[in-house]
Amino acid sequence: MKRRTFTGAASALALSFTLVTTAVADTKKYTIALIPGLTTDAFYITMKKGAQAAADALGVDLVFQGAPDFNPVTQVPVLDAVIARHPDAILIAPTDKVQLIEPLKKANEAGIPVITVDTFIGTGVYQTGAGDGDFPLSYIASDNVLGGKMAARALAAAIGGEGKVYVSNVKPGISTTDQREQGFKDEMKANFPKITVLETQFNDDDANKAASQLQGVFARDADLKGVFGANLFSALGAGNGVQQAGQTGKIKVVAFDAPGSIVDNLKTGLVDVEIAQHPAEIGYYGVVSAFAHLTGHSIPVSIGTGFTIMDKSNIGDPAVAQYIYSE
Ligand code: T6T
């Protein structure tokens, strides 16, 4: 089973072809900074690879600089340091919808174009003249509400359409994971009346915490049927918790993101379905869009990238496995 969605990617692709020609003609060497949510996450490592591929094709210098954890407190000083170096453009995955608005305004006021990748600030609808955080030029990401809905459908199917489930999530205020949880709950409410969604457990992007929370929920609700891990560490931790509780295959796990460990976890039945994002596409189109803007081209205000749904039946297919993240 494999599904991919594209919005705006086709026009972005056409743009990238004309840009390679522009790059040859343009003598200025641009520096584009990519600030990830955190540096050690396979999702952002894969995004960097895509960004580097576009940078190489366009003759751009890519600077990858980030914090060791997913936290505005550590991301803002990195952003300040990047602004001080005055790159030609900044691509950033803001770690909070609200807390990164003011720090990013400084980049905008310094004349550095800002594009957000993966996560957004404000409402994520940019260049409308409305709201405080609409100044970034573009938002390039997965459709996270849709991703949450896909997770709900997959978990509902895995548990036979009834029973108790919960969302293992990072923390409120992150655009991506907030939207996944929203999509998940909306879909459950609309189409699965026999499923009860228990209170969300927030783990601060700590897989160990997510694992002990799974055991805590199971201790309170022994009839727990399933869990949706809303990002890589939430899913990894929830899966570990299920295993530690001796419930592999009994408590179903639907996971967002696709680290290398996914292959074993799908094969052993610890995880039922994995929704892989396409972070390399996000990085690639981030650099292409920034370069297009810098060389006088207009760019789409949003670019949606795809998903690949992975399960036991298709994970051996190289066309699917290519979307497993780089470590
Ligand atoms: O799920 C991704 C990313 O989309 C999200 O914004 C934060 O968590 C990840 O990086 C996975 O750990």
Number of domains: 2
Do you know the CATH architecture of the largest domain? 3-Layer(aba) Sandwich
User: Would you state the CATH class of the largest domain?
Assistant: Alpha Beta
Count every helix, treating DSSP H or I runs of 4 or more residues as helices.
11
Helix content: 40-55%
Q: Tell me, what's the shape?
A: elongated
Oligomeric form: single chain
Mean pLDDT: 93
The low-pLDDT segments are: 1-13
Ions, cofactors and other ligands present here are:
alpha-D-tagatopyranose
Helix/sheet category: alpha/beta
CATH superfamily of the largest domain: Response regulator
What do you see in this structure?
Strands 6, 7, 8, 9, 10, 11 and 13 form a seven-stranded mixed β-sheet that branches. This protein has a six-stranded parallel β-sheet with strand order 2-1-3-4-5-12, sandwiched between helices. The longest helix has 17 residues, at 9-25. It has helices at residues 9-25, 42-58, 72-84, 101-109, 144-158, 175-191, 207-220, 232-244, 262-267, 279-294, 318-321, and strands at 31-35, 61-64, 89-92, 114-117, 138-142, 163-169, 195-197, 201-202, 224-229, 252-256, 273-277, 302-305, 307-311. The protein has two domains: 2-142 and 277-306, Rossmann fold, CATH 3.40.50.2300; 144-276, Response regulator (Rossmann fold, 3-Layer(aba) Sandwich), CATH 3.40.50. The protein is an alpha/beta fold. The two termini are 24 Å apart. Residues 1-13 have low confidence and may be disordered. The structure holds alpha-D-tagatopyranose. Residues 37, 41, 43, 118-119, 174, 176-177, 231-233, 256-257, 277 line the site of alpha-D-tagatopyranose.
